[in-house]
Amino acid sequence: MNIHFINVGQGNMVLIQIPEGKTILCDCNITQSNKDNVLRYIKKALGVSEADMLLNKYGKGSLIDIFINTHRDSDHMRGLKIIDDEFGVKEIWDTGVPGTTTDSSEYREYMNLKRNKGSEKESRKYWDFGECRLRIMNGKHDDFSDANEQSFVVKLEYKGKGIMLAGDTSYRSWKEFIEIYYTEDDLYSDILLTSHHGSISFFDDPSDSKNYYTSHILKINPAISIISVGYNNTHPDTNAVKLYETYSRGSNRGNKVFTTLEKGNMLLTIDESGGWSLKCNQ
Fold first, then answer.
1. Contacts of the segment 233-242: beta carbons below 8 A, 24+ positions apart
2. Could you check whether the bond before residue 236 is cis, i.e. omega within 30 degrees of 0?
3. Number of structural domains, the chain?
4. Is the pLDDT assigned to residue 109 strictly greater than 80?
5. What is the rounded CA–CA span in Å between residue 260 and residue 10?
6. Contact in structure between 216 and 175 (CB atoms under 8 Å)
7. Residue 45's domain spans which residues?
8. Helix %, strand %, coil % for the chain, to 5?
9. For the chain, how many helices (H) and strands (E)?
10. What would you measure as the largest C-alpha separation in the chain, in angstroms?
11. Gap between the Cα atoms of 260 and 34, Å rounded
12. Is the pLDDT of residue 53 over 80?
């Protein structure tokens, strides 16, 4: 299985290729400045020819089976129409929670696509694609008012390995919702795509004035934490990076935290034996 953490600047985009033939895209952030590089990378990753592209453009095929939108913020859905035009998207999943940029052109464009291809998925559900299990561990919750707290948390399980995609969730999503329903074995993951571009909100519990909330990261226990981030004055938060470094156990080379800003596109490969490798600057 190949999982591509695509460098899209201050946003998020993960391309998942499941051996049984499913291709999933989680989040999207295509801008004028990164468009050519992102499309070139996806085309190469999918191994598509110009003929494949033409077939899609004329409505005879879709190369992306599912688009999962963790939440409806612009930096997680911007440019999905470009992906649909270029590669085709069969189905769109989201939480059903309105985002914080509902008056933006990106939001209107996304919702037009979702109305035609979309469905809303509940938390605490899973889908099996061959030997890969995809879990949605967090989502719409009536007790939460913040859209970020209701982000999808997606976990992939394949050959005994776990990959956690944390959306923009805060400590509260985990403390009051996710951890109640899942065991440590359920949460344990080898790779963690960190929440909200390395924001401190993942750890910062206002009820604890002395220590950050770390119960969730202890249970996830990642080998490597990946931060999807661009040039920004607030992300990643210095204290959050230190916490990810403290609570990531490290790869066999001792690596603990990578950012897309420094490492570019990253390719995680899980082989048939369950071994994994993470290649940077792809």
1. 234/199, 235/10, 235/196, 235/197, 235/198, 235/199, 236/194, 236/197, 236/198, 236/199, 237/198, 237/199, 237/200, 239/200, 239/203, 239/212, 240/194, 240/198, 240/199, 240/200, 240/202, 240/203, 241/198
2. yes
3. 1
4. yes
5. 9
6. yes
7. 2-279
8. 30, 25, 45
9. 10, 17
10. 59
11. 13
12. no
Give residue 167's pLDDT band: very low, low, confident or very high (50, 70, 90).
very high
C-alpha–C-alpha distance, residues 132 and 161, integer Å? 10
* Chain centre distance of CA 44: 20
> pLDDT at position 60, please?
57
* b/e 190-206 (16+ beta carbons within 10 angstroms → b): bbbbbbbbbbbbbbbbe
Torsion of CA 251, 257, 261, 262, to 10 degrees: -60
Average pLDDT over residues 151-180: 97
pLDDT in tens, 191-211: 999 999 999 999 999 888 778
Q: Tell whether the model's pLDDT for residue 110 goes beyond 90.
A: yes
Q: What is the CATH number of the domain that holds 218?
A: 3.60.15.10
Please give the share of the chain, as a percent, with pLDDT higher than 90. 87
pTM assigned to the model: 0.96
Q: Give the DSSP per-residue string, 88-104.
A: -EEEEEE-----S-TTS
In the chain, the percentage of residues whose pLDDT exceeds 70 is 97
Instruction: At 117, list the tokens.
Output: 């291809």
